[in-house]
Amino acid sequence: MPFEVHPCDSEDLSVCTAIQWQALASNPFWQVHFPNGGTPDLQRRMTYHEEYEFRNFDTHVFKAVDTSRPDVILGYTKWIVDEGDLISGADAEKTTEQTASQQQTATESPSFSPPPVADEDSNDSVFKAWLPGVVDIRCTYLTGTRTLVLDNLCVRPDHQRQGLGTLLLMKLVDFADEQSLPCYLESTPVALEMYRHHGFEKVDEVEIDLAKWKEDCGMYKTAIMYRNVSRARHRQ
Fold first, then answer.
1. What is the side-by-side order of every strand in the sheet holding 183-187?
2. I need a labelling partner for 8 at 20 to 30 A (CA). Which of 52, 58, 180, 209 fits?
3. Closest Cα to residue 197, out of 187, 210, 207, 206?
4. Between the CA of residue 222 and those of 186, 204, 208, what are the distances in Å?
């Protein structure tokens, strides 16, 4: 296989953020949430957030590269070992100023001061409508339990369907098995079957009617997926 997975360093994070925007450009939720796409301000804000979590949390970021051009990042994955102290449902409103890349591990901190974003670049109302249902489910599956939370897994559009997503996902699965950790993620509709194929089960769903914000959109479903420890051990 011409592809390999290597750990990212902090200098890679701006490239990873750009790949995330490329990979999610056609996602209906992102189109409504970020109507002007990945503006420079939004990309700076997301990169700031990635760097903040990279420094301050048990965060693991890996990149996929072609062995013939190891300096070019083709995709990446980011996961966080959550110690069971995820935000409660009562804190959901506090997180609405944060961008979509923060949705898995939203954390309040005085030192977290991301660059500002123009109001027209981020439609916070759709995020506010979506978030409470997701937070309630997170509390059910994560509170009090040490869990591996998949925050991002994105591949450049011109390198999708070449096995890179699976390669990156297996890095997480192997780590979870080694540490005997359950895994949690919130899947887009496009990625659902890949996660199912690798042992994740759909345990819940959050549905939002995007037509309230954009007429040519319809119902959007976020699949909540879980891979428990017993399943991980059976794999060994």
1. 3-7, 59-66, 69-82, 147-155, 183-187, 219-227, 201-209
2. 180
3. 187
4. 6, 9, 9
Amino acid at 72: V
Q: How far lies 40's CA from each of 20, 53, 115, in Å?
A: 14, 20, 11
Give 75's strand partners. Answer: 64, 155
Which pLDDT tens digit goes with each residue over 173-220? 999 999 999 999 999 999 999 999 999 999 999 999 999 999 999 999
59-81: pLDDT as tens digits: 999 999 999 999 999 999 999 99
Question: Is residue 33 packed enough to be buried (19+ CB in 10 Å), middle (13-18) or exposed (0-12)?
Answer: buried
Q: E strand or H helix at 64, and its extent?
A: strand 59-66
Phi, psi torsion values for 173, nearest 5 degrees = -60, -45
- 128 CB neighbour count, 10 Å cutoff: 14
- Measure the CA–CA gap between 212 and 215, rounded to whole angstroms: 7
Tokens representing residue 59 in the block: 């965060």
Residue 95 has, within 13 A of its CA and on its CB side, a CA count of: 25
For the chain, counts of helices (H) and of strands (E):
7, 7
